[in-house]
Amino acid sequence: MQPADLEARQVSKRFGGTTALRSVSLRIAPGTIHALAGENGAGKSTLVSVLSGNLRPDSGGLLLNGQPLRLKSAADGEDAGISVVHQHFALIPAFSVAENLAFAALRRGPFLLNADALAADALQFADKLKWNVTPSAKVADLSVGEKQRIEILRALATSPRFVLFDEPTATLTAGEADQLFQVMRSLASEGVGVLFITHRLREALSVADRVSVLRKGSMVLSEIPASELDESSLARAMVGDFQSAARGSHTAAGGDQISAQNVVVQDADRRNVVDGANLAAPFGAITGIAGVDGNGQTEFAEALAGVRGIFAGSITIPSGAEVAYIPQDRAVDGLALDMSMQDNLMIRGQRKPSLVRFGFISSRRRREWCSRLIEEYDVRAESINQSAGSLSGGNQQKLILARELDSNPGVIVAADPTRGLDVRAANFVRQKLVECAAEGRCVILFSSDLDELSEIADKVFVMSRGRILEGDVASLMGGAV
Question: What is the pTM of this model?
Answer without folding.
Answer: 0.59
